[in-house]
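As the next step, I needed to go through one protein, both as residues and as discrete backbone shape codes, included below for the reader:
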Amino acid sequence: MADAGVMVAERDAVGAAALRNASWRLVPLIGLGYGAAYVDRVNISFAAVQMNRDLHFSASMYALGAGLFFVSYALCEIPSNLLLVRVGARRWLARIMLTWGLLAMGMMLVRTPHEFYLMRFLLGMAEAGFFPGVVFYLTEWFPPEWRARVISRFYIALPLSSTVMGSVAGWLLSCNGRMGLAGWQWLFLVEGLPPLALSVLFWLYLPDTPASAPWLTADERGWLESRLAAAAAGKVRHGHALADMAAALTDLRVWLLGLFSLCILVVLYAWAFSAPVILMGLTGWSVGTVGWMVAGMGLLGAGAMLWTARHSDRNGERTLHIVVPVLLMGCAYMVGGATRQPAFGVAAFTLAVVAFNAAQGPWLTLPASFLTGRRAAVAYATVNMIGIGGGFLGPVWMGWARDLTGDYQRGLMLLAVPSAVAAGLMLALRVQLRQGPQELPVALPGDTASL
């Protein structure tokens, strides 16, 4: 009996070391990559303060260009994830970052609306597949009961990238006129550099699977592979590529998740691409001060994301950890849109940002809770393909509302509608998940490893 206890303790120690090593080696690098992606995706929200004036873009022109990124992004999602499975995460993710970094810097050359539209479309094509690719990649490394925490620890880059962007945007825009470049050109030039450097780091240091990780011991590698195999037992196995694609594309649960993602991303990008202008109009503060405000919102959102993900993992529950924050988000935008008092408006918008981020860790674990292998990869790509349409609809909605009514108030208030629909879709998915395999496996005895 004593020998058995020693063996269990040794196994737990090996598992804890394997998860700790994988977490520290993979998550920070992936987080930096996604943070750079989000900055280059939405930095036009700050650039627009000068760019729209210099290039004579209307709110609708700007919104269309902002949204076209997501059209090409959606079209290329599934092919990109299939290529990631085929050639390996290291090669494919490095390629993605190299091409999007070059195009992000190329945004400084835009002069006409059509050039703006083309560059945004190409940028979306270049970045397609990065987010669902890295989420799928992490599910191939970490057992289900740790996935919300792990995903939140890379996805924390989303709110933190807002913090970084808000902190430096004012300074970059203040470089207006230096070396013959406008401030918005400096913004695109400087913020396009990080993905170029990260593409090299991904190529050199990102192993495709635990089997190819030189920093894992043989025991740690064996523990991870056996746990992942046990977690995948009983799930649908992948077969022919076309069959796997068809199975994922016809799964009702995948479509419910995709429509949920569409609704919440309508809300996110309606806010993200207009936030600096909205906050400047509400408070009367400068773009630099508003940048620091956006930075503070990002920090609070990061804290909420980590706490909710950890709480969800510990309780083994996903859907209610998603529904409650989403409903709070909708209520906050309704209040923020209805008031013109700076203090109430800022508080409401801060709550909305915090609530959005709180829901992210739990919901991103869901596709891998019922699919595995290539079908899970296609599922993540499909969910993101459907959802990323919100990146087109959100900015276009806000631009249209601004041109039609003269302000953003009504557009903000109506963001409560997609929030409520998202909550309803998640409750419908809860019913579907209860009819199939449970969302989380029961933890095995001795599973005490903590990341």
About this structure: Residues 2-208+220-435 form a domain with the Growth Hormone; Chain: A; fold (CATH 1.20.1250.20). The chain has one domain: 2-208+220-435.
